[in-house]
């Protein structure tokens, strides 16, 4: 295989036809805040932090950070303030709906409701399923590959689940069989797996759902930061995603979709602003977004989410795709060349993926590998079960695996550093002692310094329960 030299690292090339892709991937496609963050190494010294954990929370675009600083002086209460700042904030907040609707190709009458995150959006929709004589009029159908956000909300309503087959084509056939039995009101699917990055054909699934009288909701938390979505063209009824994965701070989420279910559904957050008239023992609820946005909204979260969608919409779509494909191809090819490393996927026939690569290293716990890469190589990536426990069990990874995820702020050298770390691990082993603290692997006798305003701890005190069971 031919090679190219980049940042003093010898990298495999993809062939002459992909030289331009390599050049594009050698630098970030868009500037992100913290791109030059220096991470302390356990053995001493510092290195530029290689952020390969975009799938959890992506860094803010620098344009979005600048926009935040620009609007922050105008931050005030919305909808109920007569003052100058309140009027500006209200205008920014409400216009954010139009921007987000345009970003996903929404229909003119689609509702745009801001929430806390994608999980919140799906829980909101679960309270808006059509009713018949006080009971849900149909069931929700979902696959076992879903993130818990698109799994747990449906367990509180009538539901059915389908076990994904080894092929995507067979899985779609299984969904057709289940839908053909009738009684399904909503098909809930992911746009792209948060575990493996494999993309599902949402237009095909939307047509399938509609053929049998059901609607479809797409969890686009992972898809939206990597691909443009057009719900009008795909005939998708509802789409949900979050700002924290879309290069915006504060983690605001959104649900965009047909208004009838949303206007008739149970108000998601009972409180001020969600009503037409409140009495001591009864209430008349509002319709539209206000029905579900009780209380003071996350104005800055909605505004920065909208601004991030504008930046992504302005990217050259081919460059965006080529940048991501070049990094992913290089990383997958490199991992598969290392003995004892397995790259995981759900479907043998899937052909389109986002910037997510899931893998495991034989003989090493995933959490230990992640701690080693962070401490000794300055590489950040995710380990665990990725809030997708049923899928991890079916993939034969009940204790978890590793996930490298990247985006517009990534560069080829980030993937090269990860590969170098894995190769060193397989060749010479760990360079430091590691212990388990609060369910997480951490370096023993960690002497690295932290910013003066940050707790000087390994950061394990808040380990999620699913990492320690």
Report what the structure shows.
The protein is α/β, with parallel strands linked by helices. It is built from 13 helices and 23 strands. The protein has helices at 19-25, 62-71, 84-103, 118-126, 168-180, 202-211, 231-234, 259-264, 299-313, 317-336, 366-377, 389-394, 412-428; strands at 3-6, 9-12, 38-40, 46-48, 50-51, 111-115, 131-132, 135-136, 139-143, 159-162, 184-190, 215-219, 238-242, 253-257, 275-278, 283-285, 341-344, 356-361, 379-380, 382-384, 401-405, 434-437, 440-443. The strands form 8 sheets. It has a 7-stranded mixed β-sheet, with helices on both faces. A 4-stranded antiparallel β-sheet has the order 17-18-21-20, with helices on one face. It is globular, with a radius of gyration of 23 Å.
